[in-house]
Amino acid sequence: MTTLGQPLSIETTPIDGLLVVRLQLHGDARGWFKEHWQREKMVALGLPDFGPVQQNVSFNAPVGVTRGLHAEPWDKYVSVANGRAFGAWVDLREGDGFGTTFHLELAPDVAVFVPRGVANGFQTLEENVNYMYLVNDHWSPEARYALVNVADPTADVPWPIPLAEAVVSDKDLGHPMLDAVTPVRARET
Amino acid sequence: MTTLGQPLSIETTPIDGLLVVRLQLHGDARGWFKEHWQREKMVALGLPDFGPVQQNVSFNAPVGVTRGLHAEPWDKYVSVANGRAFGAWVDLREGDGFGTTFHLELAPDVAVFVPRGVANGFQTLEENVNYMYLVNDHWSPEARYALVNVADPTADVPWPIPLAEAVVSDKDLGHPMLDAVTPVRARET
Ligand SMILES: Cc1cn([C@H]2C[C@H](O)[C@@H](COP(=O)(O)OP(=O)(O)O[C@H]3O[C@H](CO)[C@@H](O)[C@H](O)[C@H]3O)O2)c(=O)[nH]c1=O
Ligand SMILES: Cc1cn([C@H]2C[C@H](O)[C@@H](COP(=O)(O)OP(=O)(O)O[C@H]3O[C@H](CO)[C@@H](O)[C@H](O)[C@H]3O)O2)c(=O)[nH]c1=O
């Protein structure tokens, strides 16, 4: 049994509440094993006790599938099950942080906690990438998201694959640029 | 947008409480999207409201990785993120059902709810399969499992790849045969 990669740790980012979770992989002749989400250990390290009620998976066949940027009205815990993807986030919450961006490469040993109001997107860097995430509210077709265009020039996300070669849904091509986005207000409790 | 496969449904099996969940995949040019676990819809269809606190992933590099058969002291919701695996279950709970077995092929459009006390195992049918599952209690190195050997002649699981060619951990090779297993007692509430 070998330990691949680092011990479990959680890092902050320039976006308030957006957290990078480094995961430990335990390797052996079969492959590896990981605790992808572990409430008790991760809450002790600073992950919110977010209480997921849904797990989604998207399968992305071609290289360069680009999905986003979506700020749903719930928190998300995102990663890839296999392969590599470029992840990007833009803060759409009202206040000083509005428009702050962050990006990193997603692989099986890293996950990201995305608080509600922060727009989430990714681009696949290999074929056949399964992207998966946990959320703490149920999606419905009527759910209203805050959205920003993947090509927004202010956020200026450095997508590794030029958007002209990327595979983007018609819906995602229609999202507004940052200067037309209404900032997401803090939730009334 | 095409719909691949069947609408969401839940089926019972010969093992009491072991449920097969058929998942809907929404296909498009990018690949597909699925709700892998959706508390509200699935509870309405009969899935227990099991309250996961941990998500695990195992990566299985060679064909024929065989893991099991483990009856942990918590419920599990298991499937593959990608690829195909043969899943097998043996009821280790005391009572008339003790020793009842069930098997099916796991693929991204099927998940299985495994109640505590039922031993879980699988064998990969392709290279590079990511197997993932949600559980409703935290694992610890001291956790005591009920275990039964993958080669047990009574359960007689029809593994597609002969065990002589399978990749099995030393730990899993050491588990007892069914006639030496102490049945798992119902939990005191
Ligand atoms: C988000 C969601 C979608 N759907 C359905 C609606 C569509 O038929 C199909 C795909 O939905 P789309 O809206 O195109 O999904 P997509 O562009 O991949 O975006 C989703 O998945 C992305 C990750 O793949 C997330 O980053 C987005 O926030 C999320 O909205 O799945 C569900 O049935 N349940 C869901 O939770
Ligand atoms: C189950 C579990 C294991 N581990 C560690 C202990 C070891 O260093 C490494 C692999 O553990 P093993 O006991 O060999 O895991 P494995 O044989 O794959 O069995 C586990 O994973 C199987 C699926 O891959 C499940 O069907 C089993 O019930 C589960 O116990 O991961 C964790 O850190 N957390 C866990 O939750």
TrEMBL record, chains A, B:
<protein>
    <recommendedName>
        <fullName>dTDP-4-dehydrorhamnose reductase</fullName>
    </recommendedName>
</protein>
<comment type="similarity">
    <text>Belongs to the dTDP-4-dehydrorhamnose reductase family.</text>
</comment>
<comment type="function">
    <text>Catalyzes the reduction of dTDP-6-deoxy-L-lyxo-4-hexulose to yield dTDP-L-rhamnose.</text>
</comment>
